Amino acid sequence: GLLLLVAALGGTAAARCPAPCVCDNLRAHVLCLNGSLVTIPDTIPELTKKLDLRGNSFTVIPAGAFLATPYLTHLDLQHCKVERLEEGAFRGLGRLVYLNLASNSIALLYQESLDGLFSLQQLILEGNRIEEIQPGAFGHLASLTVLDLRANALVYLPDMVFQGLQVLRWLRLSHNALHVLGSEAFAALPALRRLSLDHNELQALPGEALARLDGATRLDLGHNPITYVAEEALAMASLRHLFLDHASLQDVAPEAFARSPQLRMLDLRENQLQGLPPLAGAGGLARVSLDGNPLLCSCLLRPFHNWLARARVQAEGACAAPPALRGRPLDSLKPPEMRCNRLRPPSSTPTPSQQPRAAGSRQCPRGCVCSPDFHHGSCENRDLWEIPRDFPGDTRLLDLRRNTFRTVPPGAFPGLKELVSLHLQSCGIRALQPGALRGLESLVYLYLTDNHLSTLAAAAFEGAPQLAYLDLDHNAFTCVPAGAFQLLPNLISLHLQHNAIGELAEGDLAGARGLRWLYLAGNAIRRIAPGALAPTKMLEKLHLEGNHLVEVPTAALWGLPALSELKLSQNPIKRMGDGVFLPVASSLQHLYLDNMGLEQISPGAFAGLGPRIRSLYLENNKMSNIPNMINFTGLEILNLQDVPFHCDCQLLPLRRWINKLNLRVVATCGSPAEVRGLKVKLSATFQSCPGWGQGESGEANSEKTKAASKSSKKKRSGKSPASNFNKSRA
User: Fold this and answer.
1) How many folded domains does the chain comprise?
2) What does the pLDDT look like over 103-161, one tens digit per residue?
């Protein structure tokens, strides 16, 4: 009876399968892959459990977007160009256990963005541009066990930012730009077993923050510029595996790991260590890896060597000096061989000292709210005309949005030396006066979105040398405020989207030598000078969509060896000549060329591009053919939606290539008339082309063999192939 009921409900749902989706009613799965959907379909069958929407274009996930599918357990929204999650976007999905939002453009997580997901176990946010997480953003995720925040733009983790994640076991924060961690950042993670902090910008071991993780057994800190591990720097009672490889370590204190008694494996590969002292405090250590260090096997290394033997610790590594011992494994050395004749005295590495932080008083301006637990102050939408003062001295996040300040005067934020994040969005600000940020020596984030700024003085950012994220979107700039970035050596991310900038001139970005992400979408840029981007040699992302460029700015792309993402969407570029991406061919991974009205791509336009390309967006253009892309072997996303291909024999190589791709590619014939609207894969016009039978027959036979095998299996299991899927034409 239950099976009959499910079948009946499945039949009803099948009739509602939205185009261009594929519905598997038996398993309650719906796939709408790599299409041109701009809103969440409202006709998805109510009983759907797994919904795959990868490769669409949603931009915003509105409140209540999935109320019609309350039985969802798995939701995949990868590569959907999502920029914002509205509060309550996932409300009603109380059964959801897996949510994948990887490879989108989400910049900020608000407190109610993930409301209603109380059964969620895995949340994947890898590859977005999340710059800041507000405490409480994960407060509703009581069942979450894995949180993946890799490859975002995080610099700072405030106290209690992960509050509510009582059963979280693995927190992945690799490949961000973290260099500031609140002392209570990990205080609310009692079940955490693994923490990944590798590939960040930590300059010292964040011992105070890590001490809150009593149950963690594995810690990844590799690829951080840490130079020294001090006495008792790490107090993690359950830690067994510690990775400090590929850092900048020059010295480790003898008692560095004395308060981590369970430590068994220590990875110190590829550092700058000439030696180590006996690690007497690490009584349970079984293995130390020192491969890739410039070990000086002199008499100064004997105490460490003797300790290895006494403690029965296995050591991996080889001598770099003296010449007589170069290449010798540590475990093959004998004490008499380790001499000190005519050797330089080792350079001493000073131990960094940390200044104790003042607790700060508990005063708070009238009409505002100050949270001593989170070190936050908020005067949002209080109809203020002047910036209030007298916030507690330990305030780290100050929210002044939606007031009417008009101007930010010099010294507007006295006594806030610990302030990390300052929100001044939608405040009617027309002037940021020189010295306005004076004294904000810890400031990392500055949000000035939705104001009326049209210029910035060179001294506007004086006194805020740590500023890494600057958001100037939706202002009134007609040109980039040249000279304003000279005082910002740590600037990583610059937002100047939706202004009225007409040109990017040489010298505009002078001083921004550490810039990684530059967002210039939605301006009126017609020209980028050849040397305009020269100061930004570390640039990884360049977003130029929605401007007035009529050609690819090839000359401006030289000297950007790290550029991995280039967005040129919605520019009126009609033609692309040979080699237009050669300057960044060795690094480029994501290329956006959609919605441009592109009419012709030269056969050599993609010269130099190849296996590194992971995603290529060409949808909604007007060309009838594209260059040979046989070398694009690493593609994960290819969007050719709404490109009017001319399906004649010249397109045969593309047709063959699409057939071989392990991707779902939507490519449709626009001409000749008799095949208009047909998929390129299905067009019969290719069968009359010379050489048609050389590869296709093998492919066809292979497909027939696969189909026959599947049919045979289904017959043996008593299932009809037709009963499983209700397919709508993509």
Assistant:
1) 1
2) 999 988 877 789 899 999 999 999 999 988 877 889 889 999 999 999 998 988 888 89
Written as six digits, the tokens of 693 are: 């039978």
Q: Looking up tokens 């050719």, which residue turns up?
A: 640
Dihedral Cα 496, 501, 502, 503, nearest 10 deg: -50
Q: What is the pTM of this model?
A: 0.66
Judge contact between 624 and 647, C-beta under 8 A: no
692 falls within a domain: no
Query: What is the domain range of residue 632?
Result: 573-686
List the structure tokens of 471.
């958001």
CA distances from 301 to 90, 249, 258, 306, 319 (A): 58, 17, 20, 9, 10
- First-to-last alpha carbon distance for the chain, in angstroms, is 34
- The C-alpha atoms of residue 527 and residue 596 are separated, in whole angstroms, by 16
What helix, strand, coil percent values describe the chain, rounded to 5? 15, 15, 70
Which residues have a Cβ under 8 Å from the Cβ of 550 and sit 6 or more positions away?
A: 526, 571, 572, 573, 574
In a domain, 18, yes or no: no
Cα distance between residue 258 and residue 241, in whole Å? 14
DSSP 8-class letter at 670: E
Kindly report, residue by residue over 178-217, the tens digit of the pLDDT.
888 888 899 889 999 999 999 998 878 898 899 989 999 9
Assigned domain for 301 exists: no
Distance from C-alpha of 533 to C-alpha of 555, rounded to nearest angstrom: 10
Domain membership of residue 592 (yes or no) is yes
**Lookup: tokens for 174:** 């690799």
